Amino acid sequence: MGPLKGIRIIEIAGLGAAPFAGMLLADMGAEVIQIERPAITSSTPIPDCCRRNKRSVTLDLKAAAGKSVLLRMVKKADVLFEAFRPGVMERLGLGPEECLAANPRLVYGRMTGWGQTGPLAEAAGHDINFISLSGALHAIGEKGGGPVPPLNLVGDYGGGAMFLAAGILAALLHAERTGEGQVVDAAMTDGSALLMGVFHSLHLMGRWETQRGVNLLDGGAHFYGVYETRDGKHVSIGPLEPQFYGLLIDKLGLDKERFGNQHDPAQWPELSDELAAVFKKRTQKQWCRSLEGTDVCFAPVLDFLQATKHPHNVARNTFVTVDGAVQPAPAPRFSRTASTVEYGSRPTGADTDTVLEEWGFAEEEIDELRRRFGQ
Were both Cys, which of 54, 79, 94, 122 would link to 107 (CB 3.0–4.6 Å)? Predict the structure, then answer.
């Protein structure tokens, strides 16, 4: 199942968002094999949705035998990706040079925060640092307040894992056409900077300020924001188009003359205060009854557990239950080659023997590896 059925991918297990990229590819049908260290072998699954649809093989990549096994697997793989600091795989003798020599068609994916080159390439860092440097973090927050970390969605997952997955898919197409593999360098600074491209454009058009909370899409506009309800919950509105904004005025019984000049930034702060007072008059559920499903561009603000029970998400099966745990379903959706969750997280090392046998290793070789690594 899935559009990537038949594609073999080796994921060198690590921390960060790279496993999310592997999950995306596995959900789409690719055979994703996680290579993990023997020292962390366990008999129980790790409750991590980013491990679903993958199998786990334990290898000691610091040992000559482990390196030899991986290079043999590389010969039959379409993709290998890793998320270590620059130079780590090279020091193991498993960098792009060695792997592409073993398989010239290989797509070698690399995800880091700062990238493979540049003055900061060797430095430690996390999502919050990478999006600081790209300009993304500075743009997020309320007027008069400091920047607000947007979880680790913008750097790790949006600017990193999603760009790694997209780069791997593009390189796979190139390899299929030409027989040439290549390295995909996915840096979170690069990806999150690219995500900010539209705001660079708006600034060049004189429609976006670097100050937080005064712009169209950052909470500055009264018609694009979040408001508290009478019960202490919140709702969001976003009627950018004039016909939808007009419907908001009608539905809320607002003064059409007072709220008529939608795009006058000078009026936004006062109109925001007036809308805040209006939304405080009803509970979230009451606002849902009158506004949800209309062209007002409205939605209740739900926490991630509440989201699993919303009727729209239930109707679309946006969330699935895997091994008793509710988690987001695969996305996007394909009309012919549907993505599925065939199984959840596998225990570390649980598939070593099976995978190596499928990839062409003899039984005596597998037994020898087990003796070497104490598996």
Answer: 79
Joined together, the tokens standing for residue 282 give 């009803």
C-alpha distance across the termini of the chain, in Å: 32
Q: Round to whole Å and give the CA distance between 73 and 115.
A: 26
What whole-number distance in Å separates Cα of residue 341 and Cα of residue 302? 25
Q: Around Cβ 113, how many Cβ atoms within 10 Å?
A: 27
263 is catalytic: no
Q: Is 126 a catalytic residue?
A: yes
- Kindly give the pairing relationship between strand 54-58 and strand 182-187: unpaired
Q: Quote the tokens at residue 12.
A: 């060198």
Integer CA distances (angstroms), 81 to 99, 162, 291, in order: 11, 13, 46
Q: Which of 63-72, 74-83, 216-225, 362-371 has the lowest mean pLDDT?
A: 362-371
Would the pLDDT of 351 be above 70? yes
DSSP 31: E
How far from 213 is each of 149, 256, 278, CA to CA, in Å? 15, 25, 21
Which one from 127, 156, 218, 351 is the annotated catalytic residue?
Answer: 156
Amino acid identity, position 20 = F
Give per-residue pLDDT as tens, 199-208.
999 999 999 9
360: left (phi over 0), alpha (psi -120 to 50) or beta: left
Neighbouring C-beta atoms of residue 225, cutoff 10 Å:
20
Among the options 126, 200, 263, 312, which is catalytic?
126
Phi and psi based region of residue 69 (left: phi greater than 0; alpha: psi -120 to 50; beta: remaining) = alpha
